[in-house]
Amino acid sequence: MASGPLHLTVLIGPVVPMAVPALLIDALDEATVTHAAGAVSGFQLRFRVSSKSQLNTLFLITVGQNASLGTPPLRVVLIVTLGGRPQPLFDGVVTNVEVQTGENGQPGSITVTGEDLTRVMDLIDFSGTPYPAMPIEARVALICGKYAAFGIIPLPVPPLFPDVPIPVERIPAQQGTDLAYLRQLADEVGHVFYIEPGEAPLTNIAYFGPEIKVGPPQPALNIDMDAHTNVESLNFSFDPGKGVLPVVFIQNPLTRAPIPIPIPDLNPLQPPLGVLPAPIARLKMMKDTAKMNAMQAISKGLAEAGKSQDAVTASGSLDVLRYGRLLKARRLVGVRGAGIAYDGLYYVASVTSTIRRGEFRQSFSLTRNGLISITPTVPA
């Protein structure tokens, strides 16, 4: 699928995908990809077909061969070439194929749906696997190493307050699938775990660490700026009742009495993006932290404090060809032309990309923890 500076490449196959035949590209009607912080990323491909189309047989054979136990799932890689530069848009596996028959002489459709590569980590239960004297980041690297064939590169960040188990006291053992265990570990120390495409096609970064809201921002989204406008719509909202002060509980080892400790939003990896923060509307008692050690409880409290302060949200859409590049989730972006209260830097919480023949649009949602920008300018 190509139009001017835009070109979409589709690779499909088990483990190491290959370029699809022209028959498949010609039938492709729409491709949709969603990346979101705190959620599983996914894709959907819709093909136009007739009852006599060879695609019916092709998908039946391909999916059927990859449905048996022990057979790798069908991998799909989408690469967008924009302005001559190829960029991986999505890398995942097929989870569902839906066929809709045509009516009244109109063609039918085949819709292929899938998820990111965390899905391959959720297929086999490895309960009972021991990890003696291994810190959390070492366990993460060891688990992700099993999936090197999918181009997964582990990037574990040690917890702010490390807790290395002593073998004579306890030996951590895995419960559930690799994905379930990694999410459990992330929840214990206030981290996040996700997989996103790397800079090179067929490579993926498995990130395990704190949610980061710092770094170089993406070019600004401009609204109501005449010829410089590059977004189609942009709406803002402010929820003053969203501010929460988490309170963790640390158990006194002698008296077994829980000690409440309030955790303010003071995280160097999530600095304030607004001058006027959301007011504290309520306290959140995190009673489940009483069974954790002090370091784990504080880490979880910091993660909760960071999430609960994003009272400013924005949603909108843009034409990628006009914006000039892909807007990426889990990164910062500037906003201009919205007024003194809402201009400035935002965290991109989610992006949904929709590609049709001759058209590439993205809808997005942004978050921020306060009104009025802390920076006088943003990168154009």
Sum up the structure in keywords:
alpha+beta, 380 residues, Phage tail proteins - horseshoe like beta roll fold, globular, Phage tail protein beta-alpha-beta fold, 4 domains
Classify the fold: give the CATH topology of the largest domain: Thrombin, subunit H
Give the overall silhouette.
Answer: globular
**What kind of assembly state do the chains in view correspond to?**
single chain
The run of helices and strands is: EEEHEEHEEEHEHEEEEEEEEHEHEEEE
Count the E strands: 22
What's the mean pLDDT score? 86
pLDDT < 50 runs, ≥5 residues:
none
Task: Supply Rg.
Answer: 23 Å
- Class computed from helices, strands and strand pairing: alpha+beta
CATH superfamily of the largest domain: Trypsin-like serine proteases
- Alpha plus pi helix count: 6
Strand content: 35-45%
End-to-end span in angstroms? Answer: 30 Å
At the first level of CATH, the class of the largest domain is Mainly Beta
The CATH architecture of the largest domain can be named as Beta Barrel
Q: Please outline the major beta sheet.
A: 14 strands, mixed
User: How many discrete structural domains?
Assistant: 4
> Which bin fits the share of residues in helices?
10-25%
Compile the SSE list and pairings.
Elements: E1 2-3, E2 6-14, E3 18-19, H1 22-27, E4 28-36, E5 42-49, H2 54-65, E6 74-82, E7 85-100, E8 108-116, H3 136-144, E9 152-156, H4 178-189, E10 192-197, E11 204-209, E12 218-222, E13 233-238, E14 244-251, E15 258-262, E16 274-277, E17 282-286, H5 294-308, E18 312-319, H6 320-323, E19 332-336, E20 344-356, E21 359-368, E22 370-373
